[in-house]
Structure formats: C-alpha cells, structure tokens
Amino acid sequence: MSDRSQLIETGKPFAFDAQRDAEFERLAKRYPTRESLILPSLWLVQEQEGWISAEAMAYIADRIGTFATMVYEAATFYTMYNLQPKGKYHICVCRTLSCYLLGKQEIVDYLQRELGIKPGAVSADGQYSLEEVECLGHCGSAPVVQINGEFYEYMTVDKLKELLATLK
Amino acid sequence: MADKVKLFVNGQEVEVESGKNLIDAIGAVGIEIPHLCYHPALGADGNCRMCLVGIEDGRPPLVPACKTRAAEGMKVQLDTDKIKKIQRDIMELELINHPIDCPICDQAGECKLQDYYMKYDGQKSRMTVKPVLKAKKMDFGCGVVHDQERCVLCARCVRFTRLITKTGELGIVNRTDYARVNIFPGRPLANRYALNVVDLCPVGAMTSADFRFKQRSWFLTKSKGICRGCSKGCNIFIDHNREKYKDDVIYRFRPRLNEKVNGYFMCDAGRMTYKQENDNRLTVALLDGKETGLNEAVEALRRAVSQAKKIVCVISPNNSLEQMFAIQKFAANCNAAVSGYSDGYVIAGDGDDFLIQDDKSANRASFALLGIDASKAGFDAAVNGADLLICFQNDLSLSLTADALNALAGNCKLAYLGSNMDACAEKAAIALPVASATEDAGTLVNVDSILQQYAVAVVKNTPAFDMIHVVSQLGGEIKNCFEARAGLTAAVAALKGIDLEQVPGEGLALTVSEVPNVAA
Q1: Would you say residue B212 has pLDDT above 50?
Q2: Who is most buried in A21, B123, B302, B316, counting CB within 10 A?
Q3: Residue A96 with chain B: CB contacts under 8 Å
C-alpha cells in the first residue's frame, strides 16, 4: 500500500470506445442509483487503457453525473485499479494478515532487489511493475502472488525465482 | 418546547430533550461526550468512534452516542474504565501520524485534538516507527489551506461540500493510514461558502489563508455581532484583539449559531467584510478634503444646516433602526427631505437560496417600518433645487455614476457622516467620522423581518462618536440609543409592545404591518 493519490494526467481527453460505451449504457439500467456505476466504469476504463488517468476519472464523473472526488475516492481506495501504466508483467503481492504472517515481506524484499523497483513502481524497461495489495482472498494458501491476474499460491523466494525465470 | 425524558448519566439523573441524540441531549445539560466527526448541521457519521458510550440495557456493550437517541430511563455510562480506555485508544490512534506541531498551528487553543488529549488522553507517545508523511499547505482554493498531516479524517469538510453546498469538491482518497483529504486535480473548492470548512474542521487541517499566522486564538476577544455583508444578517463572532501599544483590530468573523437566521454557517464574502472595519477608515473630520478638528467640522455643518434653504438627508440601508429614527427626527426639525436611495447596494441575481441575498445592506427592511422612501424618483425630486445634501453612511458613489455624483456635489454642498473613507467621503465638502458597525450598538431588521440587536464589540484607542451622538450635536433631538428605542416603540406600529432593551439573542420575528408608520 502506498500513496495512490497522485493522479497522472495524460493531457488528452478521454472517452469510452464504442464497445465500452455500449457496455456503460447497458450497466446504467442495472443499478438503482447512478453512483453505483463508479466501480464498473473504472473497470471499463482499465479494460480499455490498461490504467486509469485523471482525465478518465473526470470523464466517468461527468458521464455518471457525480462528483469527481467520488470517483477519485473509489479509484484510490481499491488497489486493483491501476493508476499508472503497468509493466508487461504486473506483480501483486498480498500484504493482508495471513500473507503478512506467512512472510510476504521476504517476497517483497526479494522482488525489490531482483527487479530494482519499489512497490508501486514500474521498471525502467517497462517489463515489470510491483504492487503490494490488500487481501486477494486466497488466505488458505498464503502467501499469495498475483501476476497479470493469475494466482501463485504458497509462495516462497525459491519458487518465485523459478517463476521469474519463465517470465523473461 | 420538546418533550423531556429522564435518563441517567454515570448514575446521576438528568432531564434532557427527547428525540435528540445523546451528544446533543446530554451536552445541553453541560455533560460533554467527546466527538470529532459529529456536527449538528452535518448529522451523525459515526466514523471517529470518539463518542462511544456504554448503555446498561442489554444492547451491545458500546454504542456511538451520535447515533443513539436519548430515551426514558436510559443508563448511560461515560466514566467506566472501559470507556476511558477506548477514549485513550482512539486518541492514541488519531495521534499516531499527527505532526503535533501545535506551536505553529493556527488551531491551537481551539483544537479538539488538543483539548481531548488534555482531558481524555495525556499519555506519552509509544510510537517508535516513522510517521506517514503527507502533503502540507495545500492550496484548496477559496482561501482554504489544507494540511493533510494534521487531519483526523472526520470527513466534516467532505460532508459539508456534499450535503450543504452540493459541490463535492473534497473527498477522502487512499485508504488505511495513507488516507487523506484532497481535491480532484484541477477542480479546487469553488463555492461561496467554502471557508466554513475551516470552522467545521475540529483540528488544524483546514486553515484560512486570510487568518493564518495572524493571531493566536487565545488572545482573541470573541464578541457577538451581526454581519452586514447582506440583508440576511448572519450572526457572527467578531474576533478582535488589542495588542500591546496597538489599537483594537478585528482579525476575523466567524459564524455564530442562530437556527432562525443562518444556522451554523455564513458566506465567504460576509466573512471578509471585517476588513472594512479595519481598513480605509475615516478617522478625522475633513473640511474640503483637509483634516480639521471634529468640533470645528461639526460647527461648520451646523452652520450649513441653519443657512441652507433645502436640505436632503440621505439615509443608508446599513444604518441601524435607532440611527434611522434619530436622523428622521433631525430631518423633521430642520425641514429636510429624507431619502433612502441606495440602489447601488443591491446586486440583482447575486443571491442564492441558502444565505446570500441580492441586497448587500443590512437593514433595508427598516425603511418600510419607518416609511423612508428609497426610490430614484423620490431622490431626484428631493435633490432638485437642494443646496445641502447630508449622506449618513450612504455611499452614493455606489448608486450614482461618477458624473452624476460630481454634478450633484457641484450643485449643492455635500456632507458625509461615515466610518469609511469611501468615494462619497472623498467628494464631500464636510466629512465627519462616526463609529463603525462593530463599534456601535443598534438594531437591524433582516430580509425575513427578524429583528436582531448588536452591542458595542470593538473599542478603539480613540473611539469615534456614534452616529446618533453626532446627529444630536447637529441639532437632532434624540441624544442616544436609549432615547431612540423609547421613541421607536412609541411611534412605530410594528414595534408596539416590543421592549427594544430586551430583545432575545436569537432575534424577534416581526409581524410586518401593512401600514408603515409615517407619523415621523
């Protein structure tokens, strides 16, 4: 977990493409209040761009008709939303209780050393990004690492070494 | 009066209003329940957990007092070891990442965190890890400066912008100990009530750029007053201080609770009107722009009054009811016409449906009570052929073009009684200084016909005479405020039976009379 409140501005206006636009309109009918569209809209942006810029948040807020700060709050609260462009391999390490107790710090330390980046950063070659995230819901098989959405359970530094080798 | 219920606080029986939550109900009888996030105007949020109390009736062992209504026979526990420990724990939690920079914090002296630490905590910090660092002196717009490190995340400011102004500029971003209040990039505070977040903030996270580092709060004398920024008449605290070897200066206006007028809030423009009381004051009498003794200038005006063939007294909609009455009597004695012409004080369309009114004067409603004509036609007829025009605080430069005012000043002698060196005072052949609104006492009637009074708040090292006194020196029959009040109750139908010396603090709603009094 880190400070996620520094949004990146692309300097270009954002808009949904035709497919996401249609999906947004479909979802709009599903919820009793427009505010409920904040989370799915953020997912749509992430699907489209891979990450969520300040312009995209403002676009969503105006499209939904809510305050930009409401979107800002939700986007910075949930670590699953990427607020900056991610590496080719986006590595998430769970930092919540079970994973914490079963040694997530060793894994994070190893990755920091190996990739040369701190949690929240992207490597210079754009290959890797590292993030510490809140509970991924796999407490039974802690510690858990997630790479581009795939789960890797019962992680150790040795297993991670093997795994990283396959990514290159 | 609301129904009363009896309940027990720490075993002691108290009678409180029913229907209110425990913080308000028990607070009304002088027993404090510490709280950070609850505010009567913003409702219960229940996020700070500082107001947890025990209630012995089988319900869960602890409940937030802000969300619990007072009920008959309730046994509220505030002083058990368990509650005290919770209060200490919450305080410790709030202080983990707090910079504890009280010596340079504007809120010191009126800070809930400081007060509660002294009262409910008092422990040394056990923190050995580095605190989370956040942003400081952020410019949030509208003169609000934010310090994220001092924030306790009570969300009062956030709720204010969402519930009251409905502009939603603020939000709490991130989570856990990284959570902080922020604006969305490029969308700063942009509403006309923004500075209320400074008052709402229980700690020093929200500060006013205007007031920052000007005064320590404990040096300020907090006098009651009424804002004159518009015809709403918001109740205020006038925070002023006389520093050693200096004069009494006002440092800020803050809203003061009056449910019938302004609630807990006031607008930013009204808040800044304190500057008029400090700056650009007319402190000496002027004869043709040259400084002169007050007696000499009064004598000059008295002579002008006795020699003039046609006099016009121009009353300001900012004059108090008493002042208007005294001027009216004076005008009647010297056969002068009276006008309240002041169209320039009204900015059409500027008002909103909350507090701000179009009319930027405080007491126009009193014109109707006293039968003072404020029309342009009436003014034109009055000044036609007049050779002496006396403006009582009425800055005609607001209502007339510069050319029209120059022409007027050329045709007749222009005299001015006022507290500020405004354009009208500059043009006047005779200008007499009088006490300003915060240096005088009086009565105002607001746009909703609520009559309110204010007392002398600020006493300057060399106090200016009040308007009524100066008018009496010019030959007015009313010598002071008390005489004016006695005269008003006798002469004005709408004020019959009202004791103007005993007006309640929250004001009196006048029943507006259809027939304005024209006896004077």
Answers
A1: yes
A2: B316
A3: none
